[in-house]
Amino acid sequence: MILGTTPQSNIRPGVGSGVRARKCGEMLRYTPGHTLLPQLSSHMCIVGESMKTLGLVGGTFEFFHIGHQKLIETGLLKCKNLEIWIVSDNIALQKDSRVQSWQKRCDNIKLNLTEIDNSRVSFHELVDEFGAATHHVGASAIICTSETMNNCVKINKIRAQDNLDELEIIEVPHVYSRDGEIISSTRIRNGFIDIYGNNWFDENPFTSDIHITKEAEMLLKEPFGTLFEGPESDHSIAIKKALDSISQNNSPIIGVGDVTVKSLQDIDNIANIALIDEKTKRVAWEGFREINQSLYDCVIECQNPPGMLTKSLFESCKVAINNWNINRSKTLIIVDGEEDLAPLLLHLLAPLNTAILYGQPNRGVVLRITGLDSKSRCQSLINLFEEK
């Protein structure tokens, strides 16, 4: 496995290069099961080097991943204390409206540091391009990655003009994800990798169709999400309740099942991705004819027999997700067979915070928001399926 780190924003409290810059080690590659770094403690020291009094590090720090971990751990190896400057909500939301709040990003870092490490760091809000780095009289070092070296050059020039000592720049090399790409919060948010750099799908995940097992079937009996109840005679009531619970985060809404898709249409909230099989409760349903296919930018037909996940369904879901990711276009997938198991694939393929809705017979509608937890569960369930 190849693991990695990346900056989350070019807006940093000073990150850059210059004569005094040095790399801490070479590009790192790890095999599965290996620990990224030994657990740091305040008693660790660097042989032949004196620790800097105070270092600065900055970024958006969303979905605290092993790249962030290495950046901070390197700072704590090289500096007695570390100031972590986290990009403000105002700046972060201009980049992507789905970014978590400053407080949540801050709290997530704290949860991933030891008690000793937390005692050596402080957290600050980064509200402009350079933060305190240009005028911080107590700082002596700054921790960065290669992408943000130019900012360090600018910061040290400003410091020199103001008769302040330049910051020693400590460059942390990238660690790469399993697919050879740099780990980033953006790739995690878009649903490609987890926080450890593992891909949710192998490069060729569906070389053959797979069948559900009794073990997987038992685990799928309980609703996978939050049930919103409503009368069978008017499915839109439950749908409205579910939609009212969703925060506006510019993530797609996926409807699975003919009744669910039609109910979304009836309340003028067309699914970004819709899957139908012209049935309800596994019985042919004439109501599917009222689903207006012209409302969708793309219509795909695929095959997926009951109790299976096929390559045909997988490729169709992948195209639909890509359509939304690239140009926000709507896709309707018409399944010859059954679409009941499609949420397992959709959660793994979809960006985080995607809302996936499906009907629960005689009860209402189930809503599940795609998160790292739902992706992990769906991956475990699919691993229980078998080829035949």
What can you see in these coordinates?
With 388 residues, this protein is α/β, with parallel strands linked by helices. It has 2 domains: 22-189, HUPs (Rossmann fold, 3-Layer(aba) Sandwich), CATH 3.40.50; 210-382, no CATH class. The chain contains 12 helices and 17 strands. The chain has helices at residues 66-78, 89-95, 102-111, 115-119, 149-161, 185-189, 214-219, 235-244, 258-266, 311-327, 342-349, 372-382; strands at 22-23, 52-59, 79-87, 121-126, 141-144, 168-171, 210-211, 226-229, 253-256, 273-276, 279-280, 283-284, 298-304, 308-309, 331-337, 355-360, 364-369. A 7-stranded mixed beta sheet has the order 8-17-16-9-10-15-13, with helices on both faces. The longest helix is centred in the last third of the chain and has 17 residues, at 311-327. The chain is elongated and about 80 Å long. The two termini are 29 Å apart. Residues 1-48 have low confidence and may be disordered.
For the termini, the CA-CA separation is 29 Å
- Tell me the series of helices and strands, N- to C-terminal: EEHEHHHEEHEHEHEHEHEEEEEHEHEEH
Average predicted confidence as pLDDT: 85
- Weakly predicted, low-confidence segments: 1-48
How would you sum up the global shape? elongated
| Biggest sheet features | 7 strands, mixed
Q: What is the C-alpha radius of gyration, as a whole number of Å?
A: 25 Å
Q: In total, how many beta strands?
A: 17
Strand order of the largest sheet: 8-17-16-9-10-15-13
Kindly state the percentage of residues in helix.
Answer: 25-40%
What count of helical segments does DSSP give? 12
